[in-house]
Design a protein that fits this description.
This protein has 145 residues and is α/β, with parallel strands linked by helices. It contains three helices and eight strands; from the N terminus they run βαβββαβαβββ. The protein has helices at residues 15-24, 52-59, 81-93, and strands at residues 7-12, 29-33, 37-42, 45-51, 73-77, 97-104, 110-115, 121-126.
Length: 145
C-alpha cells in the first residue's frame, strides 16, 4: 500500500443539505448523482458525500443512526492564524456550528473546530511547522534525529 488517502467519504443524513453547506464553504462539486452521491476535488484528495444508509449498506454494517462525533475529525490547515478565524466564520455563515472558536494551541499554533450540517467535525489549524505548498499539499517537517 502506498502512503496516501484517495477519498474521504462522509455519510450524511441529508445529501442536498450537505452539498449546500460545502458549496457555501466555497467548494464546487466535481460530480453529483442526484439523491445518491456528490464528489468534491480537495487538492490531491476527493471528498465524497453519500447518504449514511447507502454507505452502511455498501460496507455491510448496520447504520445505528448516530449523528455527530464518530471519533474522527477532518483537518483543514491554513497558511496563517487569521485564516483559521476566516474559515470558522465561513463555516458558521454556511450553517455549520462552531464547536471551538479560534485559539492558541498547546503545540504553539492556532486552531478551532466546526461541525458541518451533518455533525462531522473539522479542525481548522495553522501550524507553521507543517508547510503548505502552492497546490495545497501539506508536508510534515523533517524528522529530528
Amino acid at each position: 500500500m502506498q502512503p496516501r488517502i484517495s477519498i474521504v467519504t462522509l455519510g450524511v443524513e441529508d445529501l442536498d443539505r450537505a452539498i449546500g453547506f460545502y458549496r457555501a464553504m466555497g467548494l464546487t462539486p466535481g460530480m453529483v448523482v442526484p439523491g445518491d452521491v456528490a464528489f468534491f476535488q480537495m487538492g490531491g484528495t476527493i471528498l465524497a458525500l453519500w447518504p449514511r444508509e447507502k454507505l452502511a449498506a455498501d460496507a455491510g454494517v448496520e447504520d445505528d443512526g448516530r449523528r455527530g462525533s464518530s471519533g474522527v475529525a477532518l483537518a483543514y490547515n491554513t497558511r496563517s492564524d487569521a485564516e483559521v478565524g476566516d474559515v470558522l466564520a465561513a463555516a458558521g455563515a454556511a450553517g455549520g456550528h462552531i464547536v471551538k472558536p479560534a485559539q492558541k494551541a498547546f503545540w504553539g499554533g492556532w486552531y478551532g473546530y466546526f461541525a458541518d450540517t451533518e455533525g462531522n467535525l473539522w479542525e481548522v489549524a495553522h501550524n507553521p511547522d507543517f508547510p503548505i505548498a502552492a497546490d495545497g499539499s501539506i508536508s510534515l517537517p523533517p524528522a529530528k534525529t
